[in-house]
């Protein structure tokens, strides 16, 4: 985070300071909920901490030891069930009635702006209630901690109910600060809450800008896996996610043998089965469910009479709000609201499925963009659908030819970061800087404003190892203008050594590769020679094999070949 702060301070130094208040709308598991919150006898239930679960596990140690012994024989189902039962015994008070109400008086922290400023929350009870703490502190440091606020809410509620609360909070912040407008910034479920606010209150003029980070605008298929307790956990991506969050250059999959984790899906499924009932009547779960599975889950879990309030709200979300997201945002832009979406992509969904995701949210649902399935791409020569943007001068197809943003809710104001994980934006200099530019400056009006922040960018988390592009073309493209590949070592401590560079379906020879050492944080330029076919919109894969520490790694990235001549010098 210190690198982000230092880098960002340079960016924003000398910029005119905008004192428009900022309201951060956190994600689903990022606000504290419980009973008698902020009271002496407070019982925090959400999110429950690892320490709480560990205490329960230790108290249950005789039974747990039996289950642990079973792991040696592959009985991950029994172990998962026991852990799930321990979690259920901690979280049972979060269970709702069939109509979505609670018998336990579940509440979130205050929605009083004077108690929800970043300055107050950071110093109150050691920042216990400060959601998205690193990000909020970073934004507050560049604006004013007393004009940066966190919207605290009850995650059991659907986005329409929370939109009403957000509206009241916005007006309270305006009264508190004397400002005519506010800036909104959200993460995950917070993005859907903002969309619901614009949907419910189209005539309000209280918002000047809204930046939605990895937003759950049209939900996620993961809700089906959670409610039905049916998990298919991709080990490789979970390990890379851990590397991402820890900013670790170590490749955990090299350190752990997959055979020890072949029952991970069993463990997750049986653990989920014990706690699935807790979420069954949370209206938010159905708001977060994708349209594809909403009717299925509604029929499976909700009674038409007993759960009528949940159904009424969520029918409106799925059958009226979600189909109108593009027009809702267009209407906001027409009246002067600056809107932006930052989305992750290029990762398999963590609980199962074959969508292109940020590990949790399908990119197509977060952005409205047409996407290929994970690991696949459009055919060569693909032409953008152009349903939301048909401007021939705008190229909204990703270099990897797996995302078509011409269909997106905000085709000119949506940024994609390849291999950027859900919740991992704060551990990447690239996405943090992009988000802060969008939120705190007027430098990026659209995806064409700055070549350093194109519509399709790449994670620069150290866990990625290296970053590479060609020397003259925009990142992700190759043409006859290029003569070399530029490779950057993302590790700030250790050098890497390049072993080979190859490009699929191309006869290119890269010079002196085997002796190329890249110092920490530095780049090298490796010339190449060979012929490029005279084609446009052809997908190629470029693979760099390199040594980092004691391990040999490879990174493959999809590029678009756009070439109108026959050879490269």
Could you explain how this protein is built, in words?
By secondary structure, this protein is an alpha/beta fold. Among the domains are: 33-102 and 220-307, no CATH class; 465-561, Immunoglobulins (Immunoglobulin-like), CATH 2.60.40. It has 18 helices and 23 strands. The chain has a seven-stranded parallel sheet with strand order 5-1-6-7-8-13-14, sandwiched between helices. Helix 7 (159-177) crosses helix 8 (189-200).
State the end-to-end distance: 42 Å
- Low-pLDDT stretches are 1-15, 64-77, 254-271, 565-569
Shape: globular
Largest sheet: 7 strands, parallel
State Rg.
24 Å
Report the count of strand segments.
23
Helix content: 25-40%
Structural class: alpha/beta
Strand order, biggest sheet? 5-1-6-7-8-13-14
Strand content: 15-25%
Average pLDDT, all residues: 85
Count of helix runs: 18
Explain the layout of strands and helices.
Blueprint: H1 2-12, E1 22-25, E2 33-35, E3 43-46, H2 50-59, H3 61-71, H4 76-91, E4 107-108, H5 118-123, H6 133-142, E5 148-150, H7 159-177, E6 182-187, H8 189-200, E7 207-213, H9 222-227, H10 235-246, H11 252-255, H12 264-279, H13 283-287, H14 291-301, H15 308-321, H16 325-334, E8 338-345, E9 347-348, E10 356-357, H17 363-367, E11 370-371, E12 403-404, E13 414-418, H18 429-440, E14 456-458, E15 466-470, E16 477-478, E17 484-489, E18 496-503, E19 507-510, E20 516-518, E21 523-531, E22 538-548, E23 551-561
Parallel strand pairs: 1-5, 1-6, 6-7, 7-8, 8-13, 13-14, 16-23
Antiparallel strand pairs: 2-3, 2-4, 9-10, 11-12, 15-17, 17-21, 18-20, 18-22, 19-21, 22-23
């Amino acid at each position: 985070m210190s690198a982000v702060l230092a880098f960002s301070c340079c960016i924003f130094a000398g910029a005119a300071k905008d004192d428009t208040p900022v309201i951060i709308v956190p994600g689903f598991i990022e606000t504290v909920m419980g009973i008698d919150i902020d009271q002496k006898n407070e019982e925090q239930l959400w999110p429950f901490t690892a320490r709480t679960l560990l205490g329960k596990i230790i108290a249950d140690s005789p039974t747990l030891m039996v289950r642990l012994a079973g792991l040696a024989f592959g009985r991950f189902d029994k172990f998962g069930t026991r852990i799930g039962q321990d979690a259920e015994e901690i979280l049972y008070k979060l269970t709702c009635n069939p109509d979505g109400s609670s018998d336990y008086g579940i509440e979130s922290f205050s929605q009083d702006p004077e108690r929800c400023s970043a300055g107050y929350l950071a110093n109150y009870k050691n920042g216990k209630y400060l959601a998205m703490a690193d990000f909020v502190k970073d934004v507050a440091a560049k604006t004013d901690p007393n004009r940066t606020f966190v919207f605290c809410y009850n995650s059991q509620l659907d986005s329409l109910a929370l939109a009403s609360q957000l509206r009241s909070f916005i007006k309270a912040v305006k009264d508190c600060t004397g400002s005519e407008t506010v800036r909104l910034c959200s993460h995950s479920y917070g993005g859907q809450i903002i969309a619901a606010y614009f949907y419910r209150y189209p005539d309000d003029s209280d918002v000047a800008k809204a930046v939605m980070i990895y937003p759950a605008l049209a939900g996620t298929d993961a809700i089906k896996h959670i409610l039905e307790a049916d998990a298919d956990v991709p080990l490789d991506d979970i390990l890379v996610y851990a590397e991402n969050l820890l900013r670790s250059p170590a490749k955990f999959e090299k350190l752990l043998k997959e055979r020890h984790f072949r029952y991970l899906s069993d463990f997750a499924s049986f653990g989920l089965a014990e706690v699935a009932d807790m979420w069954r009547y949370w209206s938010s779960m159905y708001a977060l469910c994708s349209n594809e599975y909403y009717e299925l889950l509604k029929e499976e879990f909700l009674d038409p009479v007993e759960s009528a309030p949940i159904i009424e709200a969520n029918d409106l979300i799925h059958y009226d709000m979600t189909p109108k997201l593009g027009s809702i945002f267009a209407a906001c832009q027409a009246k002067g609201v600056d809107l932006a979406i930052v989305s992750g992509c290029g990762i398999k969904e963590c609980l199962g499925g074959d969508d292109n995701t940020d590990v949790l949210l399908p990119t197509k649902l977060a952005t409205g963009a047409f996407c290929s399935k994970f690991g696949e791409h459009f055919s060569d020569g693909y032409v953008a659908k152009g349903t939301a943007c048909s401007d021939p001068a705008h190229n909204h197809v990703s270099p990897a030819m797996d995302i078509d943003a011409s269909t997106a809710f905000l085709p000119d104001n949506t940024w994609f970061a390849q291999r950027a994980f859900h919740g991992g934006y704060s551990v990447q200099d690239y996405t943090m800087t992009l988000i802060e530019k969008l939120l705190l400056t007027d430098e990026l009006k659209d995806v064409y404003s700055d070549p350093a922040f194109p519509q399709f960018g790449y994670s620069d988390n150290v866990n990625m190892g290296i970053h590479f592009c060609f020397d003259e073309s925009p990142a992700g493209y190759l043409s006859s203008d290029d003569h070399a590949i530029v490779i950057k070592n993302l590790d700030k401590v250790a050098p890497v050594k390049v072993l080979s560079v190859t490009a699929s379906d191309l006869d290119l020879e890269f010079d002196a590769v085997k002796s190329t050492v890249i110092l920490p944080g530095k780049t090298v330029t490796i010339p190449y020679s060979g012929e490029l076919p005279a084609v446009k919109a052809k997908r190629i894969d470029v693979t760099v094999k390199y040594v980092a520490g004691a391990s040999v790694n490879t990174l493959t990235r999809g590029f678009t070949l756009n070439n109108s001549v026959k050879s490269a010098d």
